Amino acid sequence: MILDQFSLKGKFALVTGSSRGLGAAIAIALAQAGAGVALHGSTSAPKATQHKLDALGAKSIALVGDVADAAVCAKLVEETVRQFGAIDILVNNAGIIRRAPAADYPEEDWKALIDVNLSSVFRLTQHAGRHMLLRGSGKIINIASLLTFQGGILVPAYAAAKGGVGQLTKAFANEWAAKGVNVNAIAPGYMETDNTEALKKNPERARQILERIPAGRWGKPEDLAGAAVFLASSASDYVHGHVLVVDGGWLNR
Predict the structure, then answer these.
(1) Are the CB atoms for 231 and 35 separated by under 8 Å?
(2) Is residue 5 over pLDDT 90?
(3) What is the tens place of the pLDDT at every residue in 91-107?
(4) How far is it, in rounded angstroms, from Cα 74 to Cα 71?
(5) Phi, psi dihedral angles at 82 (to 5 degrees)
(6) For the chain, does the N or the C end have fewer beta carbons within 10 angstroms?
(7) What is the CATH number of domain 2-247?
(8) Listing from the earlier edge strand, what are the strands of the sheet with 89-92?
(9) Which residues contact 134 (CB under 8 A, 6 or more apart)?
(10) Residue 195 above 80 pLDDT?
């Protein structure tokens, strides 16, 4: 039956940056589909998300660490495997954003953005992929952005990192598709999260953005749930290197 292909029963996932926002919504969706989930917070355990998974009766563990640190990336994967016995799904969601004019963009902000938003995606995918390749199966979902395709304003490092996420997705997929490991990405549109709070507080920018969205509203983290479950499940077994846009139609305009 087709709906059975969307089931994640018996699967185990690691979702980085799952304390709140997009990561929390994705983690909850995977748990609702039957997966056990390793949750992750950068500075503290994602307790609120874990409570929600507990209410679902889902297996979960809580991990903490800064993914800008290469050693932390390795530890997150190894701890997931140690506690669950396997890692079937990796969602590279953790990310930060810092805004400044391109001519004055601080070097330290550039480094921080690339380390968290791009280098961690490479490292976590590499570590998780090694386990998946040995088993001949696995699903990796990278969280890209509309700025995978566009340049944005006041966010040169974010645009560079998210452009890189799109290319990494394709590069890994090219090597691993024939080995049973799917690597894909989701590019969210303008979502109501902490990362977009500054835009929402700017009346002119908020109006300009809303006017361009055919759906007539900003997205909510839960709008990514279906896409995440699809790419994590066997329903997407022949989907490789794809960046799935969930943007209310923004890129159509």
Answers:
(1) no
(2) yes
(3) 999 999 999 999 999 99
(4) 5
(5) -65, -45
(6) N
(7) 3.40.50.720
(8) 60-64, 36-41, 12-15, 89-92, 138-143, 181-188, 243-246
(9) none
(10) no
Q: How many residues does the chain have?
A: 253
For the chain, the domains span: 2-247
User: Long-range CB contacts (< 8 A, 24+ apart) of 160-167?
Assistant: 160/113, 160/114, 160/118, 161/95, 161/113, 161/114, 161/117, 161/118, 162/117, 164/118, 164/121, 165/92, 165/117, 165/118, 165/121, 166/243
What are the residues facing 64 on neighbouring strands? 41
Count of C-beta atoms within a 10 Å radius of residue 218: 19
Q: Is 238 a catalytic residue?
A: no
